[in-house]
Specification:
This is DUF3800 domain-containing protein. Pfam families: DUF3800. The chain has 239 residues and is an alpha/beta fold. The protein is built from seven helices and six strands, in the order ββααβαβαβααβα. The chain has one domain: Nucleotidyltransferase, domain 5, CATH 3.30.420. The radius of gyration is 17 Å and the shape is globular.
Length: 239
């Protein structure tokens, strides 16, 4: 019988607003056994120190630059080498194709469905999960409670034993959330077909070299657990 374990899941999203002018939107989660999170966070802080960065420096996709590319590539290497650390992502290549009215749903309804779709492969009985979300805006509290409700109900986890917690954290206080932001940024950048930043392009190259040339733009195989991506296309739901 499998011994139940507790996992921490660090979630973020990119270009998730319906009318922000960006065609691509993405969700992603970095996760690991809860008892490994402190050691991994300390390893990231050590990496920051080795590259001359303050321990409270917030690593994030928007800060990737030629001056810091060596650090960010080292952070990608840390993710790839750490067996306890995994990523699950969901990418919507063209949100202009969404037709919420046809499915009698709001954008918010669909947003929560996509969050569950992204997270569902992570959840495995009899394990337990604590989910941490990046603080985005003043609506974060209600959105967090709603997501917990959606996840628990979808898993028939009415006593909330499997999904123990859905909680907001600030990304500058969580190294694991910073890794999630970096990987989601790489995923979004690749699916937008961008090549304008040599430093950001280098991160995509490193991931493709280690994980496969199409790892950022195609749906992963069912058995892929290190870096698992779903490319969700609206037309598939309409056909």
């Amino acid at each position: 019988m499998t011994e139940p374990r507790l996992f921490n899941v660090y979630c973020d999203e990119s270009c998730h607003l319906e009318h922000d002018g960006v065609p691509v939107m993405a969700w992603g989660a970095v996760y690991c056994p809860a008892d490994a999170s402190r050691a991994i966070s300390e390893a990231v802080r050590t990496l920051k120190a080795e590259h001359g960065l303050a321990h409270n420096f917030e690593a994030k996709w928007t800060k990737v630059s030629p001056a810091k590319v060596d650090f960010y590539l080292a952070l990608i290497n840390l993710f790839l080498a750490e067996d306890r650390l995994r990523f699950r992502g969901l990418i919507v290549p063209d949100k202009a194709r969404l037709n919420h009215a046809r499915f009698d749903q709001s954008h918010d309804d669909w947003y929560y469905k996509m969050y569950f779709t992204m997270l569902r492969p992570i959840f495995t009985a009899p394990h337990r999960y604590r989910i941490y979300l990046d603080v985005k805006d003043t609506r974060g509290g209600p959105k967090t409670r709603k997501l917990h409700e959606v996840l628990a109900n979808s898993l028939y986890d009415f006593d909330r034993q499997a999904i123990q917690r859905v909680q907001q954290v600030r990304s500058h206080e969580s190294e694991l959330l910073q890794i999630a932001d970096l990987l989601i940024g790489a995923l979004t950048y690749a699916n937008r077909g961008l090549t304008t930043s040599p430093a950001k392009t280098a991160i995509g190259i490193r991931l493709r070299e280690r994980l496969g040339q199409n790892v950022l733009i195609r749906t992963s195989t069912f058995t892929e657990t290190k870096f698992n991506v779903l490319v969700w296309r609206a037309r598939e739901a309409a056909e």
